[in-house]
Amino acid sequence: MAKQIQKEIQRGVESWISLGNRRPHLSIILVGDNPASHTYVRKKIRAASAVGICSEIILKPKDVSQEELLDITDQLNMDPRVSGILVQLPLPDHVDERTVCNGIAPEKDVDGFHIINIGRLCLDQHSLIPATASAVWEIIKRTGIETFGKNVVVAGRSKNVGMPIAMLLHTDGEHERPGGDATVTIAHRYTPKEQLKIHTQLADIIIVAAELTEGRQVFGEAINFFRPHITLSDILLQQLIYLQKTNIIATSF
Fold first, then answer.
1. Distance (Å, whole) CA 173 – CA 124
2. Active-site pick, 44, 108, 109, 234
3. Which residue pairs from 93-96 have beta carbons closer than 8 angstroms and sit at least 24 positions apart in sequence?
4. Are 205 and 147 contacting, i.e. CB atoms less than 8 angstroms apart?
């Protein structure tokens, strides 16, 4: 599936350029020396290159000021050669992530974290959607999993993953940005274990969008209590697994 999507994006990029448009360019702002952040950024650079998108890393020290980061986003917003901007999270504690994310022009907000993009998502309008939520939605659509009228449990309520997944699944399929028409229950770390059992027993689809410890609890409850032929989308496993006999899907960012 990933290779097919990559080919489709490659063709889209080349078609865009053949019409006389500038090659897409991604600017990534990376702050500090967090090993995980550097790994994620390297993967993003490789993914962009694989589909024909130019990219650059703007590396700043961990003591960079919030004002300097906002100056950088302002410059990138005005730069016509820059198509998309991404600020790798997390940022140091002295920097307000929400302020910096909102400093990116909504139309260049690759992560979909700008308040306007989140608002448009909640209103079922076209917007840039956070990547992990978009990936889960794409997997559901491409594997033909039916969501209309289904009961879905989303474990995790983060604004970057759990919330946008829930929004995509529960909204109206007839709206400007079609949704899944599912009945969605959001569980989180304070959902009582007995309630979690009930929700997973009723669920047709389970999506685990949570931290590792919390996610393992939900994963365990789902394995022990799900109904036959349930679909399980678990974004903790760092891979895509399709088990045809049980119709379980596990995926991760």
1. 9
2. 44
3. 94/66, 95/31, 95/64, 95/65, 95/66, 95/69, 96/66
4. yes
Pick the catalytic residue from 108, 109, 111, 204. 111
Q: Is the pLDDT of residue 247 over 50?
A: no
- Whether 44 sits among the annotated catalytic residues: the reply is yes
Of the candidates 72, 65, 66, which has an alpha carbon nearest to the alpha carbon of residue 86? 72
Both structure tokens of 90: 């997390």
Q: Binning pLDDT at 50, 70 and 90, where does residue 1 land? A: confident
Neighbours of 37 (CB within 10 A): 16
**Active site (annotated) includes residue 111:** yes
Percentage, residues of the chain above pLDDT 90: 64
For residue 62, which of 41, 34, 82 has the smallest C-alpha distance? 34
Q: Give bridge partners of residue 242 from the DSSP assignment.
A: 249
Beta-bridge partner residues of 30: 59
Q: Is 130 exposed, middle or buried (0-12, 13-18, 19+ CB in 10 A)?
A: buried
Could you confirm whether 234 is annotated as catalytic?
no
pTM: 0.83
Q: What are the beta bridge partners of residue 206?
A: 153, 232
